[in-house]
Q: What sequence folds into this?
């Protein structure tokens, strides 16, 4: 059996040994903690989104509608924000202004919101949308929480039914009387009065 | 001191490993000496972790840039308060901070149970020691804050500017206190499962810890929202970012547990469910940490990718496997004593409430993981942002709010028609009247309208409960109503503290509903230019640019705009917004520029101004957002925290005995004159 003295001596010795164990030192690689996202260069992640203008094109939407549309497009700089919010929040980002310019060009070319979103999707893929399109596999994403809740509700209902039937058979029937003796009730009353 | 700190970490690891080994062995062999040795080793681990923490703080405050962590997260010109808080500003420091809190909590748990729960304690200390071993091993071998550089830089990189905010100084500690707080109930649950002592004993021991974790988690989340709102500049306080979601998950599960524990205490039901919730809250806390550290999911909050993520993944897998095994092999011991008698009863209402809370937790988890699932199944990267989470969670949130109003009105065991009529008539009438009133006032957004309607139901329910209690005391004791109210709360803190939390929830929901009336404007202003815009209330706001100013202060170069603001033609003050470029002590830029938002707040709405950029010399690009009811989010959060404090506040033994006696009586059979003082 290890004595207390042995333990007291052994643990610091092991600690010193472990601390002296050679460790890799990577001098140049300083850990970076990001809170605005990686802030990728526009050159790395930006891809132009263009469509030919419609004949006799007029702007297809108001500025407010365009801003609303930009709320549905995911800025690709790595910030997790939409294009509108990113470009109006952080002037360090060069991606969202470029994507905004594409939206402006498409709006000026007379394209509708759906056409603009489709154009962005064809260039960047589905990740450019702030929420998955509601079709195919994505429907599972939207419905699964409700399916799970429904399944939970069914399980709870089944459990309750079982409990209820079980309670009818073996449970203690509801007593029409107070579940305490007269003396207990008197003691409770006295205690409550004393407890003012 | 720094060397002592570094060595202490290793000693702490060995101490924790010793504690785990001898505690479990002592429990199995029923050897008091081993059990005592294990407990002492936990106290020794605490001492060692405190030494290690002091070592890191010493390194930070003495600007020892030979240490990689110090060079990465501080600079010579960083204000002292942020030099101190840089302790948890980076990965390895925050892991050490986690270990510090866990060792403090563990020591407190052991100390407060030194004469109680003795059958459970060897396994409690063993489990806590194992968690400590994991964290200390991760720190020592995977992310050591004392790692040295092979050269000494003249200055450090500095702390991320967005962490240089009072909110960020206190938000992470609160969140960690919440996360780590789930470890203690988890340890008790494991101990109860191992010893098969699954009666109410372990529940009584963990309730206060679960409350503590819930309290700090609540405060941490609200402070995080406040920090995001004032510091990040994107105009909101909740973006459904994976890391935000990760903090919400244990909170939701813990909230469910704090409700369902009442059913087990009063009726001996939901034993399996309660164990599952306690374990899940802890596992979700670890999952949240895994998300933050692994880089598996893209997040604005993520720490740099590191191998630590794999450690957390492995720990998570092992913890899930062990707890699943323990629960599955003890199902017989987890059978309930009592059975449900009616679907319209308080215990059934708690079940519905739990179902929705866990449903929301599932939907948040599902949405957070869906990009990974989609990529795995379809090879297709997708983004799951706020539109998805709002679509899924708004209906569930409204359902939860509705249940918050209904639950407290239903009696335990079985509610009679007369009881329901008596209890519901005023709250339902209030809710319908409120809904119609808000509709007439122009609130036609359905989720917002339902939010205010259900909110009114909850408020009326709570007011009715308080009113009945006060009147009962007034009649019984002749107390004035002003005296009766605090005494009523003091007599049954759990019940009435809980109602205060419910009021806080209503206030937060009302504030969320206000987002339906948010207005944003994107303006470009030269010096002397003005623009007028209209908010959701119909007020006309004019913003006149006083021009751009540039100056240096402390550790930053500032570009600022000042705007003269008028509302409906009347002066409404000046709002300034800044862009800050932080620099090191040699004047070299350290991070990307950060935003300092200008906010003119009131209880009605915030006018939120962000200087997005400067075009040319003097053309300011600004975003003006009218954010309705934001202050109510902070107020609601404070109310929830106050309610939590009321519930946690210790009761005198005399009171505890009496409320315990009252609680075992059947509510429907208690004499008519004291109905509202019985049961919670």
A:
């Amino acid at each position: 059996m290890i004595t207390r003295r042995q333990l007291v001596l052994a643990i610091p010795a092991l600690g010193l040994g472990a601390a002296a164990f050679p460790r890799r030192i990577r001098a140049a690689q300083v850990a970076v903690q990001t809170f605005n996202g990686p802030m990728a260069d526009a050159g790395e992640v930006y891809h132009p989104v263009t469509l030919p203008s419609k004949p006799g094109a007029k702007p297809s939407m108001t500025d407010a509608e365009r801003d609303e549309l930009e709320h549905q497009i995911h800025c690709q700089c790595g910030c997790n924000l939409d294009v509108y919010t990113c470009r109006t929040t952080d002037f360090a980002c060069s991606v969202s202004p470029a994507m905004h310019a594409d939206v402006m060009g498409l709006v000026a070319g007379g394209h509708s919101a759906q056409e603009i979103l489709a154009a962005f999707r064809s260039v960047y893929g589905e990740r450019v949308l702030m929420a998955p399109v509601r079709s195919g596999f994505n429907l599972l994403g939207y419905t699964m929480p409700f399916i799970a809740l429904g399944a939970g509700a069914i399980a709870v209902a089944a459990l309750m039914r079982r409990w209820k039937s079980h309670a009818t058979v073996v449970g203690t029937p509801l007593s029409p009387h107070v579940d305490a003796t007269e003396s207990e009730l008197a003691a409770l009353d006295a205690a409550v009065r004393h407890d003012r | 001191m720094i060397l002592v700190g570094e060595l202490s970490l290793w000693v702490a690891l060995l101490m924790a490993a010793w504690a785990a080994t001898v505690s479990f062995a002592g429990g199995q062999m029923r050897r008091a000496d081993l059990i005592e040795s294990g407990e002492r080793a936990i106290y020794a681990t605490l001492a060692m972790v405190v030494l290690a923490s002091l070592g890191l703080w010493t390194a930070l405050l003495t600007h020892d840039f030979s240490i990689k962590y110090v060079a990465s997260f501080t600079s010579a010109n960083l204000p002292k308060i942020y030099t101190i808080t840089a302790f948890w500003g980076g990965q390895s420091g925050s892991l050490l901070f986690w270990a510090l809190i866990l060792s403090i909590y563990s020591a407190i748990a052991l100390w407060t149970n030194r004469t109680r729960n003795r059958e459970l304690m060897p396994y409690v200390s063993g489990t806590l020691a194992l968690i400590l071993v994991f964290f200390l091993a991760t720190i020592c071998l995977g992310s050591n804050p004392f790692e040295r550089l092979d050269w000494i830089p003249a200055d450090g990189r500095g702390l991320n500017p967005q962490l240089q905010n009072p909110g960020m100084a206190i938000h992470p500690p609160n969140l960690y206190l919440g996360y780590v707080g789930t470890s203690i109930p988890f340890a008790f649950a494991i101990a109860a499962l191992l010893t098969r002592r699954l009666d109410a004993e372990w529940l009584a021991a963990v309730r206060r810890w679960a409350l503590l974790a819930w309290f700090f988690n609540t405060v941490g989340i609200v402070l995080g929202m406040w920090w995001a709102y004032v510091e990040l500049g994107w105009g909101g306080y909740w973006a459904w970012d994976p890391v935000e979601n990760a903090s919400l998950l244990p909170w939701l599960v813990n909230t469910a547990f704090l409700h369902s524990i009442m059913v087990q205490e009063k009726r001996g039901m939901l034993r399996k469910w309660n164990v599952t919730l306690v374990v899940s809250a802890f596992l979700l806390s670890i999952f949240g940490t895994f998300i933050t550290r692994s880089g598996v999911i893209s997040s604005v909050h993520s720490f740099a990718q590191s191998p630590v993520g794999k450690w957390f993944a492995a720990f998570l897998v092992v913890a899930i496997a062990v707890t699943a095994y323990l629960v599955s092999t003890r199902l017989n011991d987890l059978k309930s004593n009592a059975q449900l008698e009616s679907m319209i009863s308080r215990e059934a209402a708690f079940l519905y409430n739990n179902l929705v809370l866990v449903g929301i937790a599932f939907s948040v988890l599902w949405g957070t993981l869906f990009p990974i699932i989609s990529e795995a199944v379809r090879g297709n990267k997708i983004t799951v942002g706020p539109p998805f989470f709002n679509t899924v969670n708004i209906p569930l949130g409204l359902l939860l709010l509705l249940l918050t109003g209904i639950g407290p009105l239903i009696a335990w065991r079985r509610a009679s028609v007369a009881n329901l009529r008596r209890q519901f008539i005023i709250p339902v009438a209030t809710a319908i009247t409120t809904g119609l009133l808000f509709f007439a006032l122009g609130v036609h957004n359905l989720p917002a309208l339902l939010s205010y309607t259900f909110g009114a139901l909850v408020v009326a329910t709570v007011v009715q409960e308080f009113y009945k209690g006060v009147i009962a005391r007034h009649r019984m004791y002749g107390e004035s109503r002003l005296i009766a109210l605090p005494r009523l709360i003091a007599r049954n803190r759990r019940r009435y503290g809980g109602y205060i939390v419910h009021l806080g929830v209503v206030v937060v929901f009302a504030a969320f509903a206000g987002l339906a009336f948010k207005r944003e404007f994107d303006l470009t202003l030269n010096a002397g230019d003005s623009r007028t815009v209209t908010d959701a209330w119909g007020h006309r706001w004019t913003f006149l640019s006083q021009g751009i100013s540039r100056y240096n202060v402390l550790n930053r170069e500032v570009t600022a705009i000042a705007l003269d603001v008028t509302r409906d033609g009347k002066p409404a003050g000046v709002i300034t917004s800044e862009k800050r470029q932080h620099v090191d002590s040699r004047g070299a830029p350290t991070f990307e520029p950060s935003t300092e938002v200008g906010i003119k707040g009131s209880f009605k709405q915030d006018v939120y101004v962000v200087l997005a950029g400067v075009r040319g010399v003097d053309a300011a690009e600004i975003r003006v957002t009218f954010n309705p009811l934001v202050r109510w989010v902070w107020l609601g959060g404070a109310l929830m925290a106050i309610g939590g404090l009321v519930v946690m506040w210790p009761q005198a033994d005399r009171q505890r005995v009496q409320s315990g006696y009252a609680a075992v009586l059947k509510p429907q059979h208690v004499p008519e004159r004291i109905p509202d003082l019985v049961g919670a």
